[in-house]
Design a protein that fits this description.
Blueprint: H1 2-27, E1 46-55, E2 60-62, E3 68-73, E4 80-81, E5 86-90, H2 93-124, H3 134-167, E6 169-171, E7 176-181, E8 188-189, E9 197-200, E10 205-212, E11 225-229, E12 242-249, E13 254-257, E14 266-278, E15 291-297
Antiparallel strand pairs: 1-10, 1-15, 2-9, 3-5, 3-8, 4-7, 5-6, 7-9, 10-14, 11-12, 11-15, 12-14, 13-14
Helix pairs in contact: 2-3
Length: about 300
Amino acid sequence: MKPRILLYVLAAAGAVAALQLTRGTADEKPVQPPPYRPAVREKDGLIAAAGLVEAVAENTLLGAPVPGTVAKVHVKVWDRVRAGDPVITLDTRDLEAQRGVLQATVAAAEAVAEKAEDQVRRWETIKDGGAVSAAELVGYRAAAKEARARLELARAQLRQTEVQLDRMVLRSPIDATVLQINVRAGEFVASGGRAPAVLGDITRLQIRCDVDEQLAPRVREGLPARGFLKGESVRDEAGRAIPLKFVRIEPFVVPKVSLTGGSVERVDTRVLQVIYQFERPAGRPVFVGQQMDVFIDASPDAAKK
């Protein structure tokens, strides 16, 4: 009797467990389709690559030649700047004080040099050859030469300070748009650290495509390509693709960097980078740093297009 009762208990427990499992499954919501249609291969022979949108001449990370405290930020994001326009000014009070000291040094050196040269001229114009010995005249001339050298040294130090003052103004090296400002007035900028500003010419855009090294032998110059913005939902699916114009292949295979932006996030693959340009599509926002799905046409009939 006991084994039979045990079997009944096990059967009842199994039925209860099955009932609970069925009820839990019924309460689950069905998996929803993606909010946008992902890019798909239209034909065989296409090379899939991940791309990152850049400014047409690549993004310019404005650097600080020396560390210092930010005194003023002259621009804001989206401002257009010309080559040579000031972007950020660092604190220059110590250099301005040094310039004042050197200006006074130059003035004193000019007075000493003028006095020494006048003394040489007066002794040289004396007709009486016995008024001054040849050795004394040589000494006067040497003193005047030394005074002129000290004057040139003071002027060179002043010019050096003027150059250092000019370097404290971080200027745009190109005609560009301000893409990012990473500092504020009063913050410290370290030389060689994070770029205080990012500039780029975004009148046209380019995309840097990472092609897996295993597919690199199929890549060649001039291949047509099309890009698809991630997360974009458009009414005309046929017009979703953005035509890309080939620019160049960078002949150095590099470790693949994760597109999250981290400088140390790498995976154990290497990629060949191919650069394409494209015109900004009308009515469709495209931003620098945006990701794109790219399909490079490496089919046999690609060269005929």
